[in-house]
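Researcher: We plan to redesign the surface later, but first we want a full-length starting point. C-alpha cells attached.
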C-alpha cells in the first residue's frame, strides 16, 4: 500500500517538475521568480497619476482587482503542484520529526 502512494507521489513530482521533497533547483528558482513578479506588480506603480475611469472605477483599481485574481490563481497552482518546494526536507539523516522533542531540550517541547 505504501509503495502505491510512493509511486503516485513520484509520478506527480516528475509531472510537476519537482524532484524529491526539496524540489529541483530550477523549480525553486521558477517559483521564486513567479512570486517576485506577483509581488512587484501587485501595486500598479505605472498607473499612478492616471485619471482614466472605466465603469465608474479608476483604472488602477481594475488593475489591482485583476492582478489579485491572477495572484490567487498562481497561488492555487503553486499549492496544488509544488507546495513545499525548497522547504520540506523529508525523513533522512539529521532531520527531527515534529512529534519528537529535540535532543538538546532535555525532552521538553518548546
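Model: Full-length starting sequence:
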Amino acid at each position: 500500500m505504501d509503495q502505491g502512494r510512493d509511486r503516485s507521489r513520484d509520478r506527480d513530482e516528475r509531472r510537476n517538475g519537482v524532484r524529491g521533497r526539496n524540489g529541483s533547483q530550477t523549480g525553486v528558482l521558477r517559483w521564486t521568480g513567479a512570486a517576485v513578479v506577483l509581488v512587484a506588480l501587485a501595486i500598479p506603480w505605472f498607473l499612478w497619476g492616471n485619471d482614466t475611469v472605466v465603469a465608474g472605477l479608476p483604472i488602477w483599481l481594475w488593475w489591482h482587482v485583476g492582478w489579485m485574481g491572477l495572484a490567487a490563481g498562481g497561488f492555487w497552482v503553486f499549492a496544488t503542484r509544488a507546495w513545499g518546494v525548497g522547504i520540506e526536507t523529508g525523513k533522512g539523516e539529521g532531520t527531527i520529526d515534529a512529534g519528537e522533542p529535540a535532543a538538546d531540550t532535555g525532552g521538553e517541547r518548546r
